[in-house]
Design a protein that fits this description.
The chain is mainly β. Helices cover about 0% and strands about 50% of the residues. The protein contains no helices and 11 strands.
Length: about 120
């Protein structure tokens, strides 16, 4: 499966952004991660494809929303009230089957928040 993340850019504090993750084939679930400059990659959110169940990291719950469009085979990450600490490369990922480690990764999309 090939994943392609898009939608990043340079925004100002307080702005919102929606990232997209398209896939070349079916995935049982899909997740979003980010890597801030000089930091480790961190998990943000995931969604199970069939059930639609979502899971969020405590650090983003309430401000980030993950959703999917089955017809477009695309998962979205809506981010509200962006702040400079959200500056990072955002990645989407998928496991080979539900519950497996994240094996397939997209190329990442850069989000930069600055005034």
């Amino acid at each position: 499966v090939q994943l392609q993340a898009s939608g990043g850019g340079s925004v100002q504090p307080g702005d919102s952004l929606r990232l997209s993750c398209a896939a070349s084939g079916r995935t049982e679930s899909r997740g979003w991660f980010r890597r801030p400059p000089g930091q480790e990659r961190e998990f943000l959110a995931s969604i199970a494809w069939d059930s639609g169940l979502t899971y969020y990291s405590d650090s983003v719950r309430g401000r980030f929303t993950i959703s999917k469009d089955s017809a477009q085979n695309t998962v979205y990450l809506q981010i509200r009230s962006l702040n400079p600490e959200d500056t990072a490369v955002y990645y989407c990922a998928a496991p080979p089957y539900l519950g497996a480690p994240w094996e397939y990764w997209g190329q990442g999309t850069q989000v930069t928040v600055s005034s």
